[in-house]
Amino acid sequence: MRIATWNVNSVKARLPTVLAWLEAATPDVVCMQEIKCQDEKFPREAFESLGYNVQVHGQKSYNGVALLSKYPVSDIRRGLPGTDTSGVEADFEQARYIEALIEAPRPVRVGGLYLPNGNPIGTEKFAYKLSWMDRLHAHARNLLAQEEAFVLCGDYNVIPTPDDAKTPSAWVNDALFQPQSRAAFRALKHLGLSEAGELGRQPPGTFTFWDYQAGAWQRDNGIRIDFHLLSPQAADRFQGIETHRDARDMDKPSDHVPVVVELED
Fold it and tell me: Pairing relation of β-strands 97-102 and 53-57?
């Protein structure tokens, strides 16, 4: 089973590019972030024509996540459980999480997430980022208690280590590289989750995001912020990981590229 994550940076603006990549790469499951449209505006027919079941948790103009699967899906969740720092239940004001059980011959639960950016530091946006990460930690802990294969993948908006940036010094005042953000990401892993890039021994410099500005792509001035975290039962099935850098050279590319993990069937 091939599970992809991709921040597409507007599914409608980049639909031909996304469809072309899907046809070439043929992943079984796809978690998309930043679809930037409401559920009813999502171009589901285009993806259904490629054989995907489509689940969407959208939002007008911002955020939004989708989950595509060539297998049937069940037990669908939209939004993380818990409350944010203001006490608001779940995160339906910001559509950032979707989850389903993928009913393959060997089922796997997949959660697709778009973690808050958190900039600027010292504002309610950074507090919301850390609160959201706390809720993700609690949800992952509850999933682990079920002792099933699951994958939490998406745009984590965290640069975990200096090796995950071409120019770490450029990010020292950014929410993605703050000690609190990095510590929260480590805490997720310390629950017992495995990061697929580490399992696949991807080398430093395996970036997943390049800004549109200042020739970042041409100079390979990237960062790695898109990850798959695997439960022990999923890690036992890990076969490999691919970062599709070629997608950044496609027509009208996203500033992120797809990352695909393969699990044993």
Answer: unpaired
Can you tell me which residue has the tokens 């790469």? 25
Computed on alpha carbons and rounded to an integer, the radius of gyration of the chain in Å comes to 17
Structure tokens at 204: 């430093």
Extents of the domains making up the chain: 2-263
In 3D space, the residue among 61, 70, 69, 80 whose CA is nearest the CA of residue 32 turns out to be: 69
pLDDT in tens, 76-124: 999 998 765 555 554 557 999 999 999 999 999 999 999 999 999 999 9
Residue pointed to by tokens 């060539």: 70
**Which fold, 2-263?**
Deoxyribonuclease I; Chain A (3.60.10)
CA 133 to chain centre: 13
What is the four-CA torsion angle of 247, 161, 130, 245, rounded to 10 degrees? 0
| Furthest CA-CA distance within the chain | 47
pTM of the model: 0.96
List the structure tokens of 7: 């921040």
- Phi, psi for 261 (deg, rounded to 5): -110, 140
Residue with tokens 């939209």: 78
At residue 117, the 3 state secondary structure works out as coil
